[in-house]
Amino acid sequence: MKLFPVHSILWSSLLLVLLASQSGTDASNPDVCQDTRSYGSLERNSSKPVDHHTEIVKKIEDVVCRLYPTNKLNCSWPSILQEDIQLSVFISICDDKKAVFNFSSVDKGGPVSLTLLEQEISDVLILQLNVTQHDRWTAVIHTVKMSELEVLPPPTNISASVRDGSLTVKWSLPHSRETNDSSCFQYELDMGDQENPRQLDGEESYTEQNVDPNLTYKVRIRARKEEDCQEQPEWSDWSHTVIVEPSVHKLNIPVIISISLGIPMILLAVVLLVRYQRVSEVLFPPIPRPPPKYIYFLEKNETSNLFHTAPPTEPMEEITEVEDTEENHEKTLSN
Ligand SMILES: *[C@@H]1O[C@H](CO)[C@@H](O)[C@H](O)[C@H]1NC(C)=O
Ligand SMILES: *[C@@H]1O[C@H](CO)[C@@H](O)[C@H](O)[C@H]1NC(C)=O
Ligand SMILES: *[C@@H]1O[C@H](CO)[C@@H](O)[C@H](O)[C@H]1NC(C)=O
Ligand SMILES: *[C@@H]1O[C@H](CO)[C@@H](O)[C@H](O)[C@H]1NC(C)=O
Ligand SMILES: *[C@@H]1O[C@H](CO)[C@@H](O)[C@H](O)[C@H]1NC(C)=O
Ligand SMILES: *[C@@H]1O[C@H](CO)[C@@H](O)[C@H](O)[C@H]1NC(C)=O
Ligand SMILES: *[C@@H]1O[C@H](CO)[C@@H](O)[C@H](O)[C@H]1NC(C)=O
What residue ranges are annotated as transmembrane (predicted)? Predict the structure, then answer.
């Protein structure tokens, strides 16, 4: 990964030339990264002719390693769990000729799962599986470029919408350690319908014509590299699901908003009405009983109103006769 492409190409061509003259390695070779091998090569070294455990050797030659977005390196092969078999696993990751990561284990032959640090993810992975059965052993050495192991994260930034009878889905390139070249990516769209998923190459959008706008669409996408960019690529996980509701439901949104705002408003109005009734009962009781202090003032007020609207009556005169000056004054005002 740290190598520049030109450098890697030169190196791998040199390796091919040097391959014939290379020296052997063994499992405990501390300088496994010093050995020169071509990428994608598979070497076999055996104590005796392999025919006694050919089946097992074929199985460990089917090893597949993957580097997931979580920096998890998984290497697995068809199960060889068997009482009389012991399997040694040696993994080194090389940056140029220097090992930046080593791992070894001896067991019955299950898969290997390792979580790598960012600085341990480098250029080349060398994996050695050594199977021992009774007095014989066979070692298989894989040399692969780490870029060949990458499993992409799902595409991000997915949006989907239905307009004029077409469903348009857009997304962003999945993040890759190796390339930003959009022509290296392939996608699969699952539209949540009965039809097969759509396959797309090197594009970050897709439009499906003549969709039924009354249906709900559930869209999810996964990605992998094109075969030109990676051998035997593996699909990423599915992205989260983007849901496109029918436009009918979208029209209802204002209604929903007005209902959700309206209900509290109506409740508020009801509460205010109830409270107002109580308040008015207090302010204007059925039989008003003004405090004695104000009786005089209120009565005087009544009189003045009467004077303004109608000519004074006898009872009025009687009530007000104690207050002559006032009476006269009001009479003058009314005239
Ligand atoms: C095979 O392994 C043996 C023992 O580890 C070693 O001496 C020999 O050089 C190896 N041969 C090759 C071709 O790797
Ligand atoms: C494979 O393992 C056996 C014993 O487990 C050992 O003797 C042999 O040297 C190993 N071979 C390689 C190539 O590492
Ligand atoms: C891996 O092992 C080799 C050989 O023992 C050693 O030179 C190298 O420093 C080790 N690298 C790490 C990161 O442990
Ligand atoms: C990697 O291997 C481990 C152990 O076998 C497994 O639990 C895990 O699901 C694998 N990871 C992926 C992403 O396949
Ligand atoms: C997400 O998509 C929008 C438009 O579709 C684009 O402008 C934006 O750059 C994208 N974001 C990322 C992180 O790719
Ligand atoms: C891809 O693009 C991002 C942002 O533009 C950049 O940080 C990253 O290094 C690029 N990766 C490769 C492999 O070119
Ligand atoms: C969608 O539903 C409406 C009424 O609900 C109907 O009038 C219209 O024909 C439907 N459209 C399609 C494409 O089925």
Answer: 253-274
Residue 279's pLDDT is: 65
Cα–Cα distances (Å) from 119 to 3, 4, 89, 147, in that order, read 14, 17, 22, 15
What's the confidence (pLDDT) of residue 12? 40
What distance in angstroms lies between residue 72's CA and the mean position of ligand 4's atoms? 8
Atom of ligand 2 nearest to the CA of 27: 14
Ligand at shortest distance from the CA of 184:
6
41-46 and 136-145 beta bridge pairing? antiparallel
pLDDT value at 14 more than 50: no
pLDDT band at 57 (very low <50, low <70, confident <90, very high): confident
Residues 6 or more apart in contact with residue 320 via CB below 8 angstroms: 300, 303, 326, 327
Distance CA 38, CA 145 (A): 9
Strand order across the 64-67 sheet: 64-67, 72-76, 112-115
Q: If you search the block for the tokens 């929903």, which residue do you land on?
A: 256
Structural domain 156-244, CATH architecture: Sandwich (2.60)
Confidence of residue 263 (pLDDT cuts 50, 70, 90): confident
- Is the domain covering 3-149 a CATH 3.40.140.20 domain? no
